[in-house]
What we know:
14 helices, alpha/beta, seven-stranded mixed sheet, five-stranded parallel sheet, homodimer
Amino acid sequence: MSLTRRIFVQRIAQLGGYSAAYSTMQVLGLLPAVGQSTLPKLGADFGKGKKVVILGGGIAGLVAAYELRKAGFTCTVLEARHRPGGRSWSVRAGSTVEFTDGTVQYCDWQDGGYLNAGPARIPSHHTYLLDYCQELGVPLEVEVNVSRSALMQADVLNAGKPVEQRQVLHDTRGYLAELLSKAVSAHALDAELSADDQAKMLNFLNGFGDLNGGKYEGTTRAGFVVPRGAGPAKQVLHQPLKLSELLAADLSKGEFYEEAIDWQVTMFQPIGGMDRIPYGFAKSLGEIVKYDCPVTEITTGEKSVTVAYTKAGTPQTLTADFCVCTMPISVLAKTKNNFSAETQAAFTGMPMTALYKVAWEAPRFWEKDYRIYGGISFLKNTVDLVWYPTDKLFSKIGVIVAGFNSERDDVTGKPTAFGALPTTQAKLDASKAAVEVLHPGHSASLTKPIYINWTKIPYSLGCYANNHLASSDVPYAQLDKPQGRTLFAGDYLSHLVGWQEGAALSAHHAIERIALQMKG
Amino acid sequence: MSLTRRIFVQRIAQLGGYSAAYSTMQVLGLLPAVGQSTLPKLGADFGKGKKVVILGGGIAGLVAAYELRKAGFTCTVLEARHRPGGRSWSVRAGSTVEFTDGTVQYCDWQDGGYLNAGPARIPSHHTYLLDYCQELGVPLEVEVNVSRSALMQADVLNAGKPVEQRQVLHDTRGYLAELLSKAVSAHALDAELSADDQAKMLNFLNGFGDLNGGKYEGTTRAGFVVPRGAGPAKQVLHQPLKLSELLAADLSKGEFYEEAIDWQVTMFQPIGGMDRIPYGFAKSLGEIVKYDCPVTEITTGEKSVTVAYTKAGTPQTLTADFCVCTMPISVLAKTKNNFSAETQAAFTGMPMTALYKVAWEAPRFWEKDYRIYGGISFLKNTVDLVWYPTDKLFSKIGVIVAGFNSERDDVTGKPTAFGALPTTQAKLDASKAAVEVLHPGHSASLTKPIYINWTKIPYSLGCYANNHLASSDVPYAQLDKPQGRTLFAGDYLSHLVGWQEGAALSAHHAIERIALQMKG
C-alpha cells in the first residue's frame, strides 16, 4: 500500500475505528475479502472488575474467553464435556463415542490415525481462525480437498464402472464447449454477443474444452487408457464418456463441490487433528475452562446473569456481569431459563442438521493401488462420497471416511436413505458398499468403524442450526438480540454456519455487544 | 481386486511378464493409468560382469544406475558438475549460478528458502518418481499449484485492477452456462440434444454456472466485496466482471493451467527442495557417481563403448560394455563422437527450450496481506506469472518466483518479449514490475534476485529438447535407436518431456534395450 493510501486509512481508523478502516481498505482494494469481524479494539483494562461466564467451550466460547481476557475481563468457561472443542473433535485411539441412546464406541486406531468428527478443513480465507492457529502455535498442513485421480461412479455412466474425476470433469467441459461453439457458429447467440466477441468466444472455447476445431474428441486432461511412456510407446486417450450418460448420471455434487467458496483451494488442517485448535485455546486459557460442568439453568437479568450447573454431579451456581451463551439451541431448548417467549421459540425455530460420518481404518489401498492422495470420490449410492485422508500421505495405514452427509432432510424432516437404515450395522454396511463400488475387493480391508451421528451426541444434539432456510430468519434475528446480560453466540449466528470461522466471528460480535452495553 | 481377478493377473504375469500383467490390469480397470514403464524384471545376477558407463547424473542417469545396479551390472556415472541432479537443481544459500557467458550469481537466502530451478512439482500420477522417493526416503509434501485466492490481471479487465482467480473462473463459468442455456432454450441445439437431455442440460447448467433461472447474476463462488460475518452483517457479492472484458483479457493460460494433465491436483514436492531426489539417489549410489567429470569424446562400438572425459582437468578414459548416454542433445552436438550422421543431425533436430525463472526473497506479503497460500497469479505483462511458495507456509520470509516461461519461441527461434530484454537488469525489472502490478507497493520488498536462464547454464545449454513439434518426430525416432552399445536416454526421449518421470521411464526403456541386446 502506498504511503498516502496508508495515511488515508490510518486517518479513517482514527475517526471511525478498525471496522471503518477495514471497510475502507476493502473498497480501496487493499485487502482480500476475508471474514468480516466486528471485534472492537479494547484496552487491556476495559473489562477490569467485570466477570463473564461463557457457556460452552467450543470454538465460539473459547474465542470469546480468549479475547475477553485480553480486554481485562475475568472469564469462566463452563464446558459440559471433559474436553474442549465441542464439534471440533478428533476421534482417535482412546476416544469413546457415546450416543444419547447409550451406545458406546471405543476407538483404537493405529499410527495416530484420527477422524475429525466435525469440521475437518479450514479454507484459506477463514483468516481469523488461521491467525488464531498462528497465535496459539497450532501447526497447519495443506488439506487436499480435491484430487483429479479420485473417482466418480453412477450406474448409468460407463456401464457402472467408476471413472477418474478428471474424465467426468473434462469430458463435460468438452461437450459444453462444443455445444456452445455450435450455437455461436449457428448465429443462435447473435443477440448476446457481438461478432468480435463471438470470434473471441470460439477461440476461448477451443481452449476451455480442448476442442479440435470446435469438436470435442477427447483430451489428455481426462487421462489415459494406455499411459505415456518412453521411446516409441504410444499413449491412448480415454474414449470420451457419453454426454447423455453424463447428464443422466448427474454427478453435479462432485463436479461442483470444489467450487463452493468454502471448499476452494487452498485448504488447511491442523497436523494431528482439528482438536489441536481447541486444545491450543484451552492450554492458553488454563483454569478459565471448567470441564464436566453441564449447565442446568440460566437466569439472566439487567445487571447480571446467574448460571446453575453441576460439577462432578454437585450443583453449583455462578453469577457474572455478562454471559456469552454458546450452547447449541437444541440443548438450550431443554435447559431451564428465564428468556423471553420469542427466544424460547427461536431455540426450536431452526432445524438442527443431522450430519453423520462413518470412518474406518484400512491399509492405504487408495494410495497404493489407485494413486489417490487425498480428495473425495463421489457416487450415487446411499453413501455418496468417500473421503481420503491427507494426513501422513504415503504411510501404511489411514482413516478413510466413507459417508458424510445428512440423516434427515432439514426442510421436510424426513430421513434420508441413509438415515432410514434401521440399524448401525446397516449403516456400516452401506458405508462399506460405497467403498466396494469404487474400489472392488477393498471393502474387506476396512476395519474398526467409527460412526458419528451428531443428533445422538450428548451436549450437541445435532450438528448445526441450519440458518440458511428462509424460516430461520426470524429466530436468527431474535437470537442476535441480547437477553438482558446474556448474549448468544455460535456459528449458527453467523453467515458461515457450520464453520469454525463463523463461531469465531460470532464470538467477536458478542464482545462487540458487551462493549456496547458497557459504554451504555 | 477380487481373488479370482488377482489369480488371473498373476497367471498373466507368469506367462507374459510384468509388462503384460500391467497392461492386463489396466484393461481390467484395476490400475489407474499411470506412467508406462518397460523396465524388465531382471535377476540380481543378470548383469554380472558387465560394465555400464552412464553419461550424466541427472534423473535419467541416476535411475539407470540405480536399476542396473539392482540387476548386477557394474555402473559408473560420469557427471560433469560437482553435484547430482542436472536440471533437478535447488538453488539456496551457498549455491552459485554460473552462466556460460561468465556471469556468476551467489545465493544467500535465509531460512532454508530455495528455488527449484528446473522441475518443481510432481503430479500424483508420476508414480515411478513417487515410488523412488519412498524407496530413497525422500519426504514429500503437498505442492499447492492452484489457489483460488491468487490473482489475475489484464489491463482491459476491471480497469486493470487485479481480481481474485475465483472471480475470473466463476464469472466465466456463469456466462458460459447462461449462453448455453439460452441456446438450448431457443432450440438452437435441438439437432444435438434430445428433449430429455435438454431438460437435464438446463438443470446441470444452473448448477455449473450457479445461475438464477438461467441467468448469471454473480455467485458466492466468486467471493465477496463485503465478506460474510456474524449477526446482522450482510455480505456483498462481487459485481460480475464483464463478459466482453473477460474475452478481451484472454486469461486462458491461467484459466486452463491447472487442467493440464501434469498440473492437476494432487501435486507434491520434496520437503527442502527438488534436489533431495537426486541427492537421495546419489547417497544410495555412493562411489558409482563420479563428479567433475565432463565427457570429451564418445566412441561407441558393437561390443563396447569408450568414453573420454576429464577428472579435475586430467584426461581419462573408461571402457564399458554399454553406455547409457543422458547428456542433453545440445551438449552432445558439441561433443566428439563416432555416431552416425543421422544421429549427429538428430542432436540439432529438436529445439532446446529456453526456459527461465526469476526468484526473489521477500517477506511473505502474499500470505499476510493477500491470504494467498501457494498457487500462481497470472497477468498479461512481459512476465506473465507469479508463483508463490508452498514450503514453510505461514513463515516470515519466502522465495517467490516472478517469471517462469521461455526466452525464445521454439518454432520461430525468435526471442519472446522477455527474451528480447537487453540486460539482466531489464529482466529483473520486468520481474519486479509483474509483482508490482499484482501487489502494488510490494515489489520494493523483493531482494536477492536469482535469474536462471537454462540456455546459459553450462552442461545444460537449454532446458529440454522440445519433442512435441512435428519436426521432432524424425530425430526422436533416430535417437531412440541404439548406436552400437550406446543407448540414449533422458526426458526428451519420452512422452513426458520436461518431467522427471519421463527421465525415469526413459532410463527404464534404456535398460529394456540393454537386456534385449544381451539376450541377443
